[in-house]
Design a protein that fits this description.
The protein is mostly beta strands. The protein has a single domain, classed as Pnp Oxidase, Chain A, CATH 2.30.110. Strands 2-1-5-6-7-4-3 form a 7-stranded antiparallel sheet, covered by helices on one side.
């Protein structure tokens, strides 16, 4: 594990930040990763009203507004895609985690994360003739995002990867033949 100074001077790789989703109220289910995520961004903004007075300008600070723009390549069959599309169509509340799965940042099996609740404001699948089908979406955060540490299963980290398989045949109980 690198020390604090080494981590301070190490560049953060965007590929380590993944998004996980779950329908709000489905706490009995693990969050799921939308496969083939290509890019996402958090947008924190607030209105600042400038009031000119005889003593100088005073700033009135508005409420925080947070959104997450999401881009991904569509998978042929991705349960997360189907769940998110349904939530967008039905206006269902979702939970979203942005988790930084950089191995250098793991602490006791947990990773730095941002947690949000909110709704998909848009769901835009595109289907070009010569490229892969893509999806872009905007998640609107309700209240303020919360920061903490999140557990990420190996399955969640490796959604688009395949597992190592041995060279010998597997028997019906999942083991290998001797």
């Amino acid at each position: 594990m690198p020390n604090q100074e080494e981590l301070r001077t190490k560049m953060l790789q965007g590929k380590y930040k993944i998004l996980l989703f779950r329908k709000y109220g489905d706490e009995q289910e693990d969050a799921t990763k939308l496969v083939f995520q290509t890019e996402h961004s958090f947008d924190y903004s607030r209105d600042l009203d400038r009031i000119v007075t005889k003593d100088g300008t005073v700033v009135k600070v508005g409420d925080l507004e947070t959104g997450v723009d999401i881009d991904a390549i569509q998978s042929v069959k991705d349960p997360a895609y189907e769940m998110l599309q349904e939530a967008a169509i039905k206006g269902e509340k979702l939970e979203l985690w942005e988790v930084n799965i950089d191995p250098d940042l793991e602490e006791d099996g947990k990773f730095p994360a941002v947690y949000c609740q909110g709704y998909l404001e848009s769901w835009n699948p595109t289907n070009p003739a010569e490229d892969e089908a893509e999806i872009s979406s905007t998640f609107v955060v309700e209240h303020e995002p919360q920061f903490g540490m999140a557990t990420v299963t190996e399955e969640q980290q490796q959604t688009a990867q395949y597992a190592f398989r041995d060279t010998i045949a597997e028997n019906n109980d999942g083991g290998t033949e001797d």
